[in-house]
Amino acid sequence: MTVDGTPRNPAEAGALLELRGLTATLDSPAGTAHLLRGVSFTVERGKTLGVVGESGSGKSMMIKALLGLTPAKAVVGGESIFDGVALHELKPEARRRMLGRRVGVVFQDPMTSLNPVRTIESQMVEAVRYHKGMGKGDARQLAMSLLDQVGIPRAADRLRDYPHQFSGGMRQRVMIAMALTCSPDLLIADEATTALDVTIQKGILDLLSELQRDLGMAMILVSHDLSIVAGRTDDVVVMYGGRVVDRRATQELFVPPMHPYTRALSLAIPRLSMPSHTRLMALTGAPPSVYDAVMSPEEADARDMVRWESIGIHNELERSRHSTAQRAPLTERPEAEDERRG
Amino acid sequence: MSQQPPPTGATSAPQDASRRRSAFSLTRAIQLPGQQPRRRSRHTGVPWLAVIWLSVLVLAAITADWIPGLPSYEEKIGGFAQPPDLSLGGILGTDGVGRSNLSRIIYGARISLTIAVVSTMIGLTIGVVVGMLGGYYRRAAESVSNVIANTLSALPPLLLLLALVSAMGATLPTITIALGIVISDLYIRMTKGAVISAISREYILAARALGARDLRLMVREVMPNLIPVLGSVVPMAMAIMIIVEGSLSFLGFGIPAPTPSWGGMIAAGADIMRTQPVVILGPVITLFLTVFSFNSLGDYLASRADGREGKL
Amino acid sequence: MNATLRAIGSRLIYGVPVLIIVTAGAAALLDFMPGSPGLAILGDSATPEQVARINASLGYDLPFWERYFNWAGQALQGNFGNTLFTQEPVLEVLMRRLGVTAQLALMAMLSSLIIAVPFALLAALRAGGILDRVLGVIASALLSLPSFVTVVLLSLIFVVAMPMFPATGWVPPTEDLGDNLRHAFLPVLALAVHESAFFYRVVRTDLSGVLREDFVTVARAKGLPKARIMFRHALRPSLTSLATVMGLSLGRMLGGAVIVEFFFSVPGIGAEAVTAVSVKDMPMIQAIMTLCVLVYVVIFIIVDLAYAWIDPRVSVR
Description:
By secondary structure, chain A is α/β, with parallel strands linked by helices. Chain A is built from twelve helices and ten strands. Chain A has a six-stranded mixed sheet with strand order 6-7-8-3-9-10. In chain A, a hairpin with a 2-residue loop joins strand 1 and strand 2. Chain B is mainly alpha-helical. Chain B has a domain at 115-311: Orthogonal Bundle (MetI-like fold), CATH 1.10.3720. Chain B has nine helices and no strands. Chain B has helices at 48-63, 101-137, 139-154, 157-168, 172-199, 202-209, 214-251, 262-271, 278-311. In chain B, helix 7 runs parallel beside helix 8. Chain C is an all-alpha fold. Chain C folds into two domains: 2-76, no CATH class; 92-310, Orthogonal Bundle (MetI-like fold), CATH 1.10.3720. In chain C, helix 1 (2-32) packs antiparallel against helix 13 (282-310), helix 5 crosses helix 8 (177-211) and helix 9 (214-221) packs antiparallel against helix 10. The longest helix of chain C has 36 residues, at 90-125.
């Protein structure tokens, strides 16, 4: 169902969004920063994709590059295809106009994402009035019902309020409602709960899952928190150093063989079944610098070996598994597949 | 000085507006009319032309007496308002009385720069003392410093200057002191704002906990923090000093003739502008370049001072 | 409404000590000035006794505090005395001249806004582009021109080189509107040159700051066109600084358009102030100072109220 109740075409299936080799570079006095180094993945209609990675892995930059929101000086390359439309062939403003209508975005910081000098209503309705030419009254109705749906009490009164009259969690709900006004096919939540209290996080995440189910949207959940992604996504993409290092169905995330980084992530999760005083495994060293030259995935993996070994990824168990794997490429590299495909 | 606007909110992001006080409040940093309002710093490169021009000017002003071939600013070297010729003295032509324009400009620079520097020092002294006391002790002292600064800024600077000069007479020392008083409210506000934000920082609390005495704290801990803030504003303020002093001379209340001053030269040139428009150009261009250089320098220092704070 | 009235009241009260200091200072000036009003009226040829008699009759032989209290008492009743030379009621003269200065100031401010704001918006739309950079340089250059240079240059262009406007003088609008505007053109232009550069700078910089805020990214993500984002999202938060700057500009022009009025012989407050100081017209000087402080206080009250109106987070204290 879409937001206003019209049923989605049940026959629609398949890839809604496809990224191929998305790159982003930025020239700065310190050198050329390669913020994205060839990111590729697919988002299926109606499904949820999780994007996991630490700060600096490029996940937010990837969202920005997709939406055409990168800083003016950044150069974006690669291909992005949304519902059959080649976004990379569009001019930036045309791209934003198209995506603005069909993709809803919820950003990280609810405290700064809303214009402090305008009412909630004016900010909620501007997109739908621009894209769909909706009249004032209809738009207000829509806004009210959406606020209701996201759990804001007394929606009618609240429309006239200003952002500072809402708490952080409420503001994020408003952001979600705002993102849904145009009945988007895809909802992107970029660290949407990171700035919120843990107790509120769950509420927001549950809301997102519920809305996604009801409206049949595709969703991308970006987070550095694996637990957020774990129970709520169909597929997951792991990013590290500006590239995708692992890509699989969520249920199979920790089924070996997996990229050493994914393994490291799993080792960092505390489990109640562990004996007491078990040390959590944390990687030593630092993620690769954005200023590193462009390199192939094999070269990158070789460079990163030191890091993986620091927590004994190649312990007894792994070694036995890897001894068979070592004859094959070190990691399961989706990009290598694309390269082979040509 | 009523010429300056209260801040554009440069010191606080929009979401801190709840902390924003009324425009009357003096706890915010001030910008000057010529200064680029500071939001986030744009990295402007060092304004080399400005530095070169100012260096040349200062050099000429200092060595004026020893420049060979430069006539004194009083002697008549030619007819009334002659166009430029090839002699050193006549290279910018002569003024309405026949004196060398170049010479008058250089000696005028001496006056203007001296006044600018000394009045700035006076203004800084008053400003730092009042601002420091007000910002450090708060409450009563702050109210007093507020009243002082408000009083000084309530009146347009030129009128205040006129009043002071009419009372004290128009000599180099009195004009300089009067200018220092006029500009001091800018320094009071900036100092007070910087002091207030500095004393809330933890190293001050730590020093206090260790029993440091007030005076020591003010001088050793707080003062160094004032330097980048005040330093970035000094060139701008000096530009204002030059302009205001020029305005005073233009109106005829400045340093009496025959001492040359740029404002006076422009006023005199304006009188004969109809027949000899060229006379004006020398002092106008010099004045403009000097003020522009100070403003550029101030812009650069301001962007650097901001950047430094950002990295903290 | 109550909070607003209380806020206005507190601002006014805050202005009282300033008013007292300024006017007392003006009264005290007399003791420092060489000569005396009596001397100024009668001239050098008068005998000391004649001078002393005039001074006594005007109350200038009294000590500072008595003089001040007398003046203050009268002033609170609306009587600011008479001008020294023409013996006209100071208040009348002042009001007349205030009208002239106010006309110049308002016209200058309006034209500056009309020029500066659209250019700032245009420059911000293509930030870093040619227009942006050129305008930035022009604004810096104009801000480095003192007003006495501006008036001379404008005169050179519009009076000497291409005589289009009268060099000096003033015709009240009630007499002949066309003539009034012709006489007002150069003074207003002289004022506007500086003010528009100033407004441009302030708005342009504020816009660049606002355009970096998150909510602008959100607006772009919504797919709204650039111009709409500029007007609906970026402009409003920038208005607070503009309001402040406008207030100051008005205050500055009302009291301080001295050079412009002097040069173009416009009968405004600034020109009157210069004359008053040079002839030591004490009643006029004190009245002008009072006016300046009042203008300052009133403008700040208005600016504060404007702040509260523009930014809903700021409450009138």
